[in-house]
Amino acid sequence: MMSDTSQPFAISDAPLGGLPSADTTLLANAPLEVAICEVRFTAESIGVPVETAERVRNSLSESLGIDFTSIQPATQNTMEINLNAGGASWSGDETRGWQIASANGQHSATVFPGSVIWQVADYKRWSISMRRPLDMLLGAIATDLSPSLIQRIGLRYVDRFVDHSCLKPQDWEGKIDGTLLGPICNPGFGSLVTGAQQQVELALDGRHGSVLRHGPIPDPASKSINYLLDLDVFANATWPFRVEEVLDTAERLNRTALSLFQACVSSDYLKSLQGEGQS
């Protein structure tokens, strides 16, 4: 049997899972609250020197033109459950690293000995908000921590659709695709539904998947109902750590997430998010 250490897929612009190509028009009314990319890897390092955090901070500030003022210790807890004849036992471990955050709190990078996380709340477009900082972060990791293998790449996009005219979950009919609304559209009890948080798991292929969490959520401030769409797309595969291949993998995951996003909303609502019909 051959070892699974090749790149997880051939370079391609097409979304995974046979999903249709997405419309790449930028949204004028983007509902995105936060975008997150996590890259997990194996490395010999058991800690992250503060000098690495300082270099990441300086590189981010120079590359993005954003003032990163904060470097704070970060911890990551893991829990392992061991099953044996005597029952179950739990063991925990704590990993230490650093979080580097911008002055306005809209951008942050967290570096651990086995993972790096980039988070942005002020998303512009993939090339600027994600690929450029990831390129810099992964380059720093490659130099300082000497990673050997990639274990997982995950992208997460949390969207909150806001329409103050939606006063009950049923008002999202015609905006969110009806196949997702499910019980809200039920002719018998749909009008009685006050909440319907759901999780959908997708197998895009043998190495890639997605988890879609969604549902209506109340907005007490406006007394309206928002709609939350939380998309997680990921690659679970092991292959040698090469920065450019990680970036290309993440970019294809991004295109997959965009295709899934557009499949979750109606065509008319997508046009309104793109700003069509507005002066």
UniProtKB/TrEMBL annotation:
Q: What is this protein called?
A: TIGR04255 family protein
At the top level, the lineage of the source is Bacteria
